[in-house]
Amino acid sequence: MTENTQQQHTASRTELPTQYAPAEVEGKLYERWVARGYFEARADTDKPPYAVVIPPPNVTGSLHLGHAFEHTLIDALTRRKRMQGYETLWQPGMDHAGIATQNVVERELAKEGKSRHDLGREEFVARVWRWKEESGGQISDQMRRLGDGVAWKRERFTMDEGLSRAVQTIFKRLYDDDLIYRAERIINWCPRCLTAISDIEVEYQDDDGELVSLRYGDGDDSVVVATTRAETMLGDTAVAVHPDDERYRHLVGRSIRLPLTDRSIPVVADPHVDPEFGTGAVKVTPAHDPNDFEIGRRHDLPALTIMDEHAVITAHGPFQGLDRLEARSAIVAALRAEGRIVAEKRPYVHSVGHCSRCKTTIEPRLSLQWWVRVGPLAKAAGEAVRDGRVTIHPKEMEKRYFDWVDNLHDWCISRQLWWGHRIPVWYGPNGETVCLGPGEQPPTEPGWTQDTDVLDTWFSSGLWPFSTLGWPDHTPDLDTFYPNAVLVTGYDILFFWVARMMMFGLYAMDGTPPFHTVALHGMVRDQYGKKMSKSFGNVVDPLDWMD
What we know:
By secondary structure, this protein is an alpha/beta fold. It has helices at 3-15, 22-35, 65-83, 98-111, 116-119, 121-135, 138-146, 161-176, 290-298, 324-337, 375-386, 397-405, 457-461, 464-467, 476-481, 494-508, 542-546; strands spanning 49-53, 87-91, 93-94, 156-157, 180-190, 195-197, 202-218, 221-227, 238-241, 255-257, 264-269, 281-284, 341-355, 363-372, 391-393, 411-412, 414-415, 425-427, 433-435, 449-450, 454-455, 484-490, 515-521.
């Protein structure tokens, strides 16, 4: 060996670090893998296919340890399948996250002293798109740092052009098949987000309240009812008792005076009432309670809406303009002054629904909304697991799945937002309604307007296993990679997402389920057992630990 060669070898040895430093090699190695196309997947292949979709993270967010855990599981599955000779696709993408994203941009506007209404709908949506382009790349950067073996050239977004076309297509098909309809029903209303939310976006927790027993009517023509929401009495249109309850038989069909108002309301007999619970008599507020709404429909009762979208009292009288909680205290005080309070129980712990995003107490509210008629869709989703076409792991989660799909109520899919897939329905000046598919143009005559609502975010993400492969077109990708081999996701979105993908996949793809296997994993939790969530402020960025 020459002296020059020895010097070169000596220099090389001194440049080697004493310890392995992953940060110095991982980034370059990963980008080399991506550049060489190791994670891409081809539809024109002789290899057996193996496809997995990423549970699309919200564009507003960043990954935490829970995501890192999930991505590790999927990465291990897909890398192993590549080594076994499969044409392996790990499909990446993000969700537009309607309510969350709109809230973020509205907070930015508030710093400028503006609201979305100052900009108008078109400019506000353009502002959100700009925010998405500037701030929506954090998750992709994190995934690259984690080493996720996804097919980056196939990355999708739930509001990109192709996925928007898929949403319009399935809405139109469901509408034409009478599986989407518009109706006035009780919905879960968030007075802060100012939109309807679905049943599974309501989180229930035990809150301290008060249970007050009130006397309606006078003398022999009186009845005692109990409530935790005294303010809703302003919208009462009946008192209901059980048909076989001898205590109230003489009152059925008669009217009694509703305190604090100039109205009298009927006493109706309804089998829904439990004569053993409380006094056996219940106040009926059809516009502000789902059970009362059903009683109201059975007895043709009027439905009086007594609150606006901010949960402020609109009923004429001394309580008009008060927030619902202010009105509650004021009404109890007024009833007490009239001698109408029979009993009070404070504190009274009871289960109360809260918005899963902002934690505001939900207000049941009568509202005209769009709905999916889920009966036949949910039945098909249940049968696909029962007959073995889809396997759920762990097996004990099957019971939770069946409990959900077998008892599913119609799904409220309209949201009172500007960011999202706008409902493709137009209304004419004379009450006409027309639903438009992709490429169809609305009527040009004056007076036609499009529905102002957008679709629930879960509506578009329910199409994810096939919309990302080019549906509604018949594509080579769809032929090769649908159905997906496996879905890996947390058990917490079994109802939010998994069941909806099952319903839509079976419907859109002629009875073929979206995946063969659902692998549900547990949650990464904090030291108090709470699920990691930005709203809880307990998330851990995996990159911090990597660094």
